[in-house]
Amino acid sequence: MQQPEINQKPPNIIFILTDDLGYGDIGAFYQNQRREEGKPHHKTPNLDRMASEGMRLTRHYVGAPVCAPSRASLLQGVHQGHANIRDNQFDKALSDNHTLASVLKEAGYTTGLVGKYGLQGREGNSPETWQAYPTKRGFDHFFGYVRHRDGHNHYPAHKVRERPKVELYAGNEEISDQLRGAYTTDLFTGAAKKWIIDQEQEDQPFFLYLAYDTPHAGLEVASTRYPEGGGLDGGVQLIGEVDNYINTVGDSIDTYIHPDYIDQGWPEPQQRFASMVRRIDNGVGDIIQLLKDLDIDENTMIVFTSDNGPHRESYGYGEYDPTFFDSFGPLDGIKRDTWEGGIRVPTIAWWPGRVSEGSMNDSPSGFHDWLPTFVEMAGLPAPARTDGVSLLPVLTGENNQHSGEVYVEYNQGGETPGYEEFHESHREQQRGQMQVLYLGGYKGIRYNIQSADDEFRIYDTRQDPGETNDLAASSNNFDTLQQQMKNRVLQIRRPDLSAERPYDEMPVPALVDPGNIQPGLRYWVYEVITPWVPDVHTLEQAPEQSGITERFDLEVRTRDRHIVLEYAGLLEVPETGVYTFSLQADRGAVLRIHDAMVIDADKEYDSGSAITSEIRLEEGYHPVQLIYARAEEDGTPSLQLQWSGPGLSMQDIESKELSHQPDNI
């Protein structure tokens, strides 16, 4: 990354998340192609301009194909194999761990959330009693919907068709009674603009998470045309007066169809949907103009995307399906599917002078990659807990291929729609337990999983985005890849009792062929100040010392404070079974086996306490990594890692059980 000039603030960051916007719903991704083919299409001129001035990520994936788990993976930088919110766990409390907001706040950013949240916790009914209210998860400012279901009504002060009045919060105050006639797309745009303006009076960079609740159903539209202009003096403006909260409040609600769509002969639900998307497009253009008016556009990155594939609900506005505009683009699947149309989302990154104009990248990446990306932009290492890899080298053109991992899991009892646009093998496909993994450049996907032995369908989604040519069993190489995928999905995730899977009881496979191994662990010592246990691959500093050690101990340290140690090697498991690991440290540490998180003793870790965790391991060799970090604490550094299992009482891991592969150094 190009470093900021002396005295220049780190870049501002705006992450814009839409609700149920399909991959094909943006002109530059698919609607413009429909226009050229003479088919019904809707328009997104501001987003198209944003794409022409930035980068399109054309194989970017959500954590899960529905909003709550998708947003949880985004905010905490972990895939669904490690997230505490999975499947359809709407309104479940986001765990008290690192978030996009908390890490950027640590880096000196002011943090704000405007829009839909839905991760507050099911207990409580107020900002004081909700366990994971946004201001308890790193956000300095919150304006929007707390509950998931409230986001189905886009006029909070009104009953609309099948949805009642709902609550909306400004900070800790519930203000829905002040919002007569206020449409949430405009309301959130206006609130975002006002907050950005307020931040420019402060000498801090800002992070804004703007989460629109549209175009998800109900299919409610605005009351008036979008105001002329944009930015400081035009567009939507937040007035803040009771019954006149924004300047688009009209005499009636839910009536404005964009003129481009009135005389097309389209069904009303389709006119409404197109008008909803256009309103988001207006809002994005308004915000970009504001950045230009404030002269901060060249020091601000905007990311625009969606939380999952397109929906098929209308909530009282008539029959609606995403087939009229092919909102899924050239892909099969919709919201709740793990076919490409359910999990691949339209994503644009815009940063004048840093992200190349009109660029495109099709290497697979995921929502959990944004946390390490933004932390790198802020000048800090990523927390070791993250499953993501920074996208910054891709965005700035330093690297064309992203090295991160794409992993998705989800469970839903329905079926893929039987749309004629979909390949016949995907139509009316029973969903059930679903799983997606990218490995070796190929997508593996399983539907209605019954056991860990179920076969993956394997696709080259770069050449075959519609997933029509299943490559599984087509050659010996794909037979090998099949087994590698079955092993890999067990090596990168942890079971969750609240979201059980058919493969939870399977042991984590050992390495098939560890090759040449030698005694001892490799270790690296970094003399560095970090605010958390870091992903050592994101440290700018080179190690002060490295070598081989017999065990996990601190004798290799070079000093007692401001230090990070990484141990990596192989753990020999003597017998297949359940093993319990116990870790105790004076400050913090993170333990992974393969890429599965076994112990996370970092944020909220009670110094000196023992944390235990069970994992089922197959007999053989398993990669192990332990990262320990210490800041300015007084006293002697301490670290103890023990294990127990079949035939083993709780004890230190002996040197004979630890080794490394010198060929991989």
Automatic annotation (TrEMBL):
Residues 516-657 form the PA14 domain. InterPro entries: Alkaline_phosphatase_core_sf (IPR017850), GAG_Ulvan_Degrading_Sulfatases (IPR052701), PA14/GLEYA (IPR037524), PA14_dom (IPR011658), Sulfatase_N (IPR000917). Coiled coil: none annotated. PANTHER family: SULFATASE, SULFATASE N-TERMINAL DOMAIN-CONTAINING PROTEIN. This is Sulfatase-like hydrolase/transferase. It comes from Fodinibius salicampi. The lineage of its organism: Bacteria, Pseudomonadati, Balneolota, Balneolia, Balneolales.
